[in-house]
Amino acid sequence: DQSLFDSPALMLPSTIAIDGPAASGKSTLGELLAQRLGYLYFDTGVMYRAVTWAALERGIAISDEAAVTYLAENIQIDFLPPTVSDGRQFTVLIDGEDTTWDLRRPEVDKNVSPVSAYAGVRAAMTPQQRRIAERGRVIMAGRDIGTVVLPDADLKIYLDATVDERARRRLLERAAQGRHLSFEEMKQEIERRDQIDSTREVAPLKRGTDAVYLDNTGLSIDATVKRALEIMQARAQSLSGLTNG
Ligand code: CDP
Ligand code: CDP
């Protein structure tokens, strides 16, 4: 892939959208690609997780749409480079408080999809995400990045893997954090979240026709990054007018 950087004639995609279901590998791929390219990686799922965590913390009922929406409109979510070296990709502050690991708690996994289905919650988050992408050289991951947040992204990837593979991956990840669930529990949790995310009315998860489909079931992380760099190179050639399409 070195040629990607060597050819000054190539116009690299500046805004890259990665969408896909839970645990398909978006953060892993996004982070590694961003390191390679010197881009910013931004995980929009964290914003919905932050609203969910804040609602749970403050005893707001998840079913109370007005209260959850008010919260989304009024909390301050800040993203910083890691402030503690404990394996985190970044630090998240909610109203100044470090909640980075709290956002991965099972209560958040369980409640985040209903929260993110609220139109008012999305209306509060989408403009913040667009602002982050404005400067370009950004890789943004989520569910609706290529379809709604950044419809003009230079490159859109829809990252997928079978639900069994995704459940297995997330199980290993949670086990490393000291949380032990059964495979069946994890699979059900993921299927439930995917179901809500893809059937909601506002900005559902879907595979856009202009996104490159990348199924990384059975692919190592390295192999997935390699595939994505090939996709980027092809896109760079078409952006530079070197090929059609
Ligand atoms: O990492 P994982 O795939 O488990 O989830 P995430 O990317 O952190 O997203 C958590 C939840 O936030 C998703 O299940 C969606 O309900 C919601 N989300 C969304 O609605 N739109 C986005 N752009 C990103 C996440
Ligand atoms: O961001 P998203 O929820 O889509 O997934 P992730 O957090 O990047 O990946 C979920 C887990 O799968 C992580 O523990 C990754 O290390 C692992 N993974 C993998 O085993 N093989 C891949 N090709 C990609 C991710």
List the helices and strands and how they pair.
Blueprint: H1 3-6, E1 15-19, H2 26-37, E2 40-43, H3 45-57, H4 65-74, E3 77-80, E4 91-94, E5 97-98, H5 106-116, H6 119-133, E6 138-142, H7 145-149, E7 155-160, H8 163-176, H9 183-199, E8 212-215, H10 221-239
Parallel strand pairs: 1-6, 1-7, 2-6, 7-8
Antiparallel strand pairs: 3-4, 4-5
Helix pairs in contact: 2-10, 3-5, 4-6, 5-9, 8-9
This protein binds cytidine-5'-diphosphate (2 copies).
Residues 20, 22-28, 169-170, 173, 216, 219-221, 224 line the site of one cytidine-5'-diphosphate.
Bound molecules: cytidine-5'-diphosphate
- Count of individual beta strands: 8
End-to-end separation = 21 Å
> Uncertain runs with pLDDT below 50, 5 residues or more?
none
Residue-averaged pLDDT: 94
Radius of gyration: 18 Å
Q: What sequence of helices (H) and strands (E) makes up the elements?
A: HEHEHHEEEHHEHEHHEH
Neighbour order of strands in the largest sheet = 2-6-1-7-8
Approximate helicity band: 40-55%
Per the principal axes of the C-alpha atoms, what is the gross shape? globular
Largest sheet: 5 strands, parallel
Computed structural class: alpha/beta
Helix count equals 10
How large a portion of the residues is in β-strands, by DSSP E? 5-15%
